[in-house]
Amino acid sequence: MKTVKEGEVRRREILVAARELFVSKGYEQTSVNDILKVVDIAKGTFYYYFSSKEEVLEAIILDIVEEGARRAENVLKDKSVPLVNRIMMAIMAQTPEFEGSDEIKEEMHKVENTKLERLYLRAMLKRMTPVLEEPVLEGIERDMFHMEYPTECIESILLLGHMMFDCDVFEWKMEDYPKKIKAFLCNVEKMLGTKEGELNVLMNMFGQKP
């Protein structure tokens, strides 16, 4: 057990060092040797845990998904917040909060790194869908939401939010965002089967006026 524990600690040290280097130097500019110097390990030790620098980045992306899911779970525990607000806040909790997270996202969204983008999407949907199912089913039970396919509805909302606001696919200008956010919330209302305008109050959460 002690050996396993020490292995987990060593693997975590590599990931922490790599994340900091990817943020400060950039993924392309960071070499395996750079990571070795920070962690102070031999090359053989690195390759015992990871087969390549890309595999390290993949592990970091999975960590980011897990961190976001845990934030979402904490948000959903606060029963003093209205149910709809909690659900939307939990979805927004997916946004990485560590310094330099934009650099990691930029690397993930590059055309040549579609494998990383798919990895993130698969992991995010697998981890977050069960997290959101309980509050969505609660909304159905309370006659707030009306839908035939709760699981698929959650998956669609997660994918829509990611594609619209996380990927920089559309290259919108700042003045475009109020309309895009309103459209997103309107579509979420339709998918959840809740009453029109139910989510207008959430514009404040996006830094916009309702």
UniProtKB/TrEMBL annotation:
Transmembrane segments: none annotated. Keywords: DNA-binding, Transcription, Transcription regulation. Pfam families: TetR_C_39, TetR_N. The keyword Calcium does not apply. GO terms for molecular function: DNA binding. Residues 8-68 form the HTH tetR-type domain. This is HTH tetR-type domain-containing protein. The lineage of its organism: unclassified sequences, metagenomes, ecological metagenomes.
